[in-house]
Amino acid sequence: MNISESLAKEDNNCRPNKRIKTNDDTDTLQQCLQLLFTPIPTTLNTQKSKSISADERISTFRELWKDHGFRTTMVTSPRPAVSIYLDSCYGASSSAATTEIASNYELGREYLQLCIGMHPNQVSLESTYSSIIKNIYCLTLFLKRMRSVREGDMMNASVLEIISQWENRLEDMLSSTKCTTDIIILQELSESSSRILSQLLAKLADIDHSLRNDQLLHEYNRITYENCTLANSCLHRWIYNNEQQQVYDLDEVYYKASPPGRYLPKYERITINMKEANAVEPSKSKLILLQSLTQILTSRAIEAASGNCTVRHPLDSVVDDMVLSTWDSLLRCGYYVDETRKRYLEPELKKFYMSGLLGGKESNMPILLNAHFTPTYPLSLYLYGTAGAGKSSLVSNLYPSINEAISTHCDPELCVRFCKQNLNKPYKTLQLELDLRPNNNDYSVMSIIQGRRMTLSQSKPGLVLVGLEEMPSNNIDADPNQSEVGKLISMRFSGRKGEFKGGQAPRNSTKRGEYTYLFSPLMFCLPFTCSHILVCYHV
C-alpha cells in the first residue's frame, strides 16, 4: 500500500480532533510522548553561530533537509527560501552509510516529516495529541515558563501543594515501562489540568499582587496557540531550543500545488522563507502552521489514489470540513439547522471560508501555510420572517460555531465576536451611533466594534459579527424609514463619511480610502420585510 492509499484509508477511519479507538492506541500514545518529552534526534541539533551570514544560514538549512533524504531547491527571488518537494517525503531515507548513522538519520527524517505534516501516521498522531496530550504538554510548558520568570513564587509551599502531585504522577508515568495504564493515567492528568491551572493562577495572583489572573491566562493561551498541533509543537522544539536562542529564523511557509485540474506530484512543494535580517521592523512572532496542514498537503494525493481524475483545489476539502464543523457545532449548542436553511447558508459559508484561507490571492497562487484567516469575501446574510421565526436564535448560535470552525481548522488565535445594533430609532440618533468620532469618550457602535475586533489580549485582529435588528417602516415619510437607514448602513460600513445625497463620492475625493472597516455588503434580493441583517467581516 503506497502513502496515498494509506492516508486515504486513515482519513476515512479517523477524523482529526476526534478521540481515536484503534488497536494501535498505545503505540501512537508512546510515540507522541517520545516526540515531546525526549530530546530531539541528534542529526537535527545544529548550533547557531553569530558570525554566520544569512546566505550561509539558509544553505545550511537546505543541506540539513538534503542529508535527511528530501529533494530540495534553493529559491533566490523574491526572497531567499528553500523548497521541499512532497514526493520526496514518501518512503525512507537511504543517504547514510552505517547502520547506527542510518538509524539516527531516519529518526531525524521522521521528525522533519512530522514538522511539515507529512508523517505517514500524521492523522493518528495529531488526533491522539489533541485529545489527550495537548493539555498536559501545554501545562508543562507553562510551569516551565513560570519557573523561569517567577522562580521564588513557584517555590512557595502553597504553589507546590497544587502542582507537585500532578507533576509527580506525570514524571512517574513517563519513567515507567508499563504501557497498559498509560492511557488512563494520561486522561486523568489531561482532565485535571484545567483545575490545576485555575488554582495555580489564583494562588500566584494572591501571592504577588503585581500579577493579574488574566495576564497569566493570556500567557497560557499563547502557549496553547503555539502548540495547537503536534506538528507545531515539534517544530517549536526544533527551531526554538530555548527562549533566548533561535536556531532558524523561519518566517513564512507556502504550498505550491501542481497545475489545476491534474495531479503531478513531482512539482508539488512547500517553500520555507527565512526572516529578513535587514528588515525595518523584523517580525518577532513565532511560526505557527495551519491546523489543517496535513489535509491540504495530502488531499490531492488521496483523491488521485481514489481514481478522481478532476482533482479539486487543495483547500476544497478543508472548506467542506469547516462547513460540516459549523453544522456539528450548532447541533451541539442545541440548535438544529434543517436542510432548507443549510442549502441557503452553505454556499455563502464556503465562499467566506475559502476567501479567508486564500487571503485575497488567486486560487492558482501558492497557499500560505502560516496560521491565518483573512477573508476578503464578506459573510452578509439577510434574515426575514415573522416574530418567533428563529432569526435571533440563528444569529446567537452561528457566531460561536463560525469561531469554532476557524479555530479548529485555520487559526486558533483568531476570535469572532458579536455586536448588535437596533435600527428602529430616530434617524439622527442612529446617525450619531453609527459615526466613529475621534475622541476618548466615544461610545458609538463603531467604536464598540473597533474595540471588540481586537482586545488587549489579542496579538492579531479578529472578526466581528454585526447583527442589525429591527428594520424600520418602509413609509417614505416615517422617521426612520428603510431607504435612509439602508443608505446610512451602506455608507458607514464601507468607510464613507458625510451624506453624498447627490451621488457617489468623486474618484479623487479624500473621503475615499479613509476607512477602518472592510465591508462590501451582499444582500439577498428580497424585499425589506426582515428584522435582521447579519454581517461578518474582517477588520
The ordered string of helix (H) and strand (E) elements is HHHEEHHHHHHHEEHHHEEHEHHEHE
* Strands side by side in the biggest sheet: 1-2-4-3-5
Q: Give the overall pLDDT as a whole number.
A: 80
Give start-end ranges of low-pLDDT stretches.
1-23, 505-531
Rg over CA atoms: 26 Å
Structural class: alpha+beta
Q: Roughly what fraction of the amino acids lie in strands?
A: 5-15%
> So what's the overall shape?
globular
Which sheet architecture does the biggest sheet show? 5 strands, antiparallel
Compute the number of strand runs: 9
Total of DSSP H or I helical runs spanning 4+ residues: 17
| Separation, N- and C-terminal Cα atoms | 47 Å
Task: Give the % helix.
Answer: 40-55%
Detailed description of the structure:
By secondary structure, the protein is an alpha+beta fold. It has helices at 3-13, 25-37, 54-67, 99-115, 122-149, 151-154, 157-175, 182-207, 213-226, 230-239, 293-305, 316-332, 339-358, 391-409, 427-433, 445-453, 482-493; strands spanning 72-75, 81-85, 250-256, 269-274, 367-368, 379-383, 416-422, 463-469, 532-538. It has a five-stranded antiparallel β-sheet, covered by helices on one side. Strands 6-9-8-7 form a four-stranded mixed β-sheet, with helices on both faces. Strand 1 and strand 2 (81-85) form a beta hairpin. Helix 1 (3-13) packs across helix 11 (293-305), helix 2 (25-37) runs parallel beside helix 5 (122-149) and helix 12 (316-332) packs across helix 14 (391-409). The chain is globular, with a radius of gyration of 26 Å. It starts with a helix and ends with a strand. The model is unreliable at 1-23 and 505-531 (pLDDT under 50).
